[in-house]
Each structure stands twice: as structure tokens, then as C-alpha cells.
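Incident review: delayed structure delivery

Summary: a single-chain prediction request sat in the queue longer than the usual turnaround. Root cause was a stuck worker, restarted by the on-call engineer. No data loss occurred. The affected request and its eventual output are reproduced below so the record is complete for anyone auditing the incident later.

Affected input:
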Amino acid sequence: MQAFLGHFAATLLEGVHAALRLDGAGWHIAGRLTVPDNVSLIFLPPYAPELNPIERVWLLCASASSRFVSSPISKPPSMAAAKPGTTSPPNPAASLP
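Output delivered after worker restart:
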């Protein structure tokens, strides 16, 4: 976080002051963090995911990934074609002339 703040502050034009909004993650609140003069840190209150924009991204990701899971898988796909009493599926190449 310290390296990021230093690089970020160096990219700001002369006279520009930036405010960064942060959640309470441990790397955002390090005890020895030195904040440059042209940067202010604004911390979100704890347990307020509705104020953190990244939480909306996680919701979209969860919603999108749920489309790919339609029902629980009862058998691994490799076992689905196995004959009863065997542990491997039949070999399709064995039936070739």
C-alpha cells in the first residue's frame, strides 16, 4: 500500500489533491503507513458493503456464475458412462476396426 500511495501521489499534477475511498482491509490501515501530502484517505464505515462499489461487482460475478450451475452433480463426469462394477468409462477406441 505504501508503494502504491507513493507512485499514485507522484502521478498527480502540481496543486492537485486526491481523496481515496478505502474499506477496512488490513493492508489499507497499516500502522506505519505514510500518506503523502497531496492524498487524503477516506475510510468506509465497517460492515457497510452497500457503500463499497466493488461489492456490486461481486454480486454480478455471483449472478453470472450461477447460470452455469443448473443442478448438483451426482457423479463425476468420467464415472457417468462407466459400466456397473467398473471404475472407468468404456474405451470408445476399443470398438474401432
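Verification: The mean pLDDT is 74.
Action items: add queue-age alerting; document worker restart procedure.
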